[in-house]
Amino acid sequence: MADPEILLPSLINSLAASEPDKLFCAYADSASTADVLNQVTYKTIANAVNACAWWLRETLGDAVNFDTIAYLGPSNIQPAILTLAAAKVNRKAFLVSPRNSVAAQLQLFDTTECKVLIVAQGFQLPEPLTTALTARDTKILPSKPQRHWLEHDSVSGFPFNASLKDCPERPFVVLHTSGSTGFPKPITYTFAALRSYIAQANPKDIDPDCAPTQTDVFKNTYGGPYMSLVGTDRKAAALLIEPRMQVEGDAEKSLLQEQIGDSVQRANDLAPDFARIEKDMILFTNPDKPIVRASKGTVQRNATLEAYKKEIDQLYEESL
Q: 174 and 122, same structural domain?
């Protein structure tokens, strides 16, 4: 078992040394189903991260206080390489959606005090964004293609000795909200938060020091792409779940409610009294009435709850 205090960049280095040929991931060169998957081992990804870290140090110099590096490009392996490399050079990667408006991008750059943008090869920045960032003295760097890193000659390991015990609030990566109710808002994930999510992948082994959330316990056990607590201004909380499998009829509903009983109890142990959920206060979505999502695929919570208002009201009438 890995040292619970080890941070992800060090863990990858450790696995590259002990199990160099173990599969890290696989990817296709395009969306075509005819493409052969390219396998990436831990030895390969560790070397790619180290090569990228040396490049960042040479290009940007020493970081002052976990300076932010934004990245714009496709969702392939490159963001993972950059994120891990940025952590090694005491910076934090900011993975920005290319769908954001110019105004939204500038707002995000201001909020995160980002002065460096790495742009994927072949990705064209809108001219107004380039002009605005240049006027703000933002350094815009063209990225090497991901194959450059994955096929890079062997390099020495970039030194990285941080641990969770020494710096639990060390930032790891910055993401942002969808901006469906205004400008997107940046969210910084620390290494402690990352450890929490890893622990929650197996709810039976949740580490109490990771401070998992009630919803995370449900989602990692039986939940699907969407789950939401409901019941504002009501006497008890309820849970709306989009299950991984279709639930047909009262018998299957009751069976699934019984199956998640232990998870309900574990989640309730983490929740304040007003947010605890009884097993009969769980509502499953209907495939004939899909969750309301925006064009980006993000869930529109208010619209979804409005769509299920009748079912939610009925749940409370029958259960309370």
A: yes
pTM for the model stands at: 0.64
Residues 108-124, mean pLDDT to the nearest whole number? 92
* H or E element at residue 304: helix 301-307
CA distances for 218 relative to 31, 165, 319, angstroms: 32, 28, 21
Burial level of 22, CB count in 10 A (0-12/13-18/19+)?
A: exposed
What are the distances in angstroms from CA 4 to CA 19, 145, 171, 266?
19, 33, 17, 22
Number of CB atoms found within 10 A of residue 161's CB: 7
Which residue, 48, 51, 25, 54, is CA-closest to 38? 25
pLDDT in the model for residue 122 = 83
For residue 46, which of 7, 83, 78, 84 has the smallest C-alpha distance?
A: 84
Domain membership flag for residue 67: yes
Q: What percent of the chain has pLDDT over 90?
A: 34
Tell me how many domains the chain contains: 2
Distances (CA, A) of 118 to 39, 154, 166, 214: 25, 23, 30, 36
Phi, psi of 190, deg, nearest 5: -90, 170
User: Whose CA is closest to 42, among 22, 26, 61, 28?
Assistant: 22
Residue 301: give the domain boundaries.
223-319
- Determine the pLDDT at residue 85: 96
Res. 117: pLDDT tops 60 = yes
Q: Average pLDDT, whole number, for the chain?
A: 81
Contact present, 139 and 115 (Cβ < 8 Å): yes
Q: Which residue has the higher pLDDT, 320 or 224?
A: 320
pLDDT grade for 221, boundaries at 50, 70 and 90: very low
52 & 173 share domain: yes
